[in-house]
Design goal:
The chain has about 160 residues and is mainly alpha-helical. It has two domains: about 35 residues; about 120 residues, Four Helix Bundle (Hemerythrin (Met), subunit A). Helices cover about 70% and strands about 0% of the residues. It has eight helices and no strands. Helix 3 runs antiparallel to helix 6 and helix 4 packs across helix 5. The relative contact order is 0.11. The model has no long low-confidence stretch (mean pLDDT about 90). The structure holds flavin-adenine dinucleotide. The site of flavin-adenine dinucleotide has 21 residues, from helix 3, helix 5 and helix 6. Flavin-adenine dinucleotide (FAD) binds next to helix 3, helix 5 and helix 6. It holds the Pfam family Evr1_Alr. Keywords: Disulfide bond, FAD, Flavoprotein, Oxidoreductase, Signal. One of its GO terms (molecular function) is flavin-dependent sulfhydryl oxidase activity. Its cofactor is FAD. It is an enzyme of class 1 (oxidoreductase).
């Protein structure tokens, strides 16, 4: 068989059918897994997780979670859009539902009921997170943190311009 004939044979018998099959299967997968609507009841529902008995794991989980929360607030936009504000508010409520220590999550939901998330700006969000952390600190008889230093402590040091 001549090379050109072999090329056309491969093109029509192998390459093109494979291409259309892959394209169709990706398209089908997109169609059968649409993003579900997230309604308000899901966001503000009750605690999902069971109790976490192990004190060491509870403390480690707490440290890493506070670090995540404070760093997130420290990098939240200074002037967020409505969408960004709602994203942060939803995250905090979902975080309180899904926090892996059930008894901590129950206490945290009670705090959220009294002190709803402040999402109007980076400063508001950072100060809110610092304040609710201090409420937990107080209950656990830990030192109260100076919220005036929170921006300095949790700036992540990333090169924003290069990573934008
Ligand atoms: C939402 C949530 C609820 C929790 N509920 C409970 C609970 O009910 N029972 C329980 O036993 N544990 C709970 N924990 C864990 C608890 O808060 C601590 O994380 C854990 O006891 C370890 O404490 P730590 O002394 O190492 O410091 P952490 O409180 O974990 O703090 C870590 C570091 O953050 C800094 N920091 C401290 N306070 C602040 C602040 N206000 N703002 C900014 N930075 C601060 C300090 O540098 C500190 O060393 C909870 C954690 C979270 C995230």
């Amino acid at each position: 068989m001549r090379p050109l004939s072999l090329f056309f044979l491969l093109l029509f018998v192998v390459i093109l059918p494979s291409f259309f099959y892959l394209k169709a299967s990706i398209h089908t997968r997109e169609q059968i897994t649409p993003l579900p609507e997230i309604n308000k009841d899901v966001i503000t529902g009750p605690v999902v997780m069971p109790q976490l008995g192990n004190a060491t794991i509870k403390a480690e989980l707490g440290r890493s979670s506070w670090n995540l929360l404070h760093t997130m607030m420290g990098r939240f936009p200074e002037h967020p859009t409505t969408d960004e504000k709602e994203a942060l508010r939803s995250f905090i409520y979902l975080f309180s539902r899904l926090y892996p220590c059930g008894e901590c999550a129950t206490e945290f939901q009670a705090i959220l009921a009294r002190y709803p998330p402040q999402v109007s700006s980076r400063v508001a969000a950072s100060q809110w997170a610092c304040a609710v952390h201090n409420i937990v600190n107080q209950r656990l008889q830990k030192e109260i943190f100076d919220c005036g230093t929170v921006a300095e402590k949790y700036k992540c040091g990333c090169d924003d311009e290069k990573n934008a």
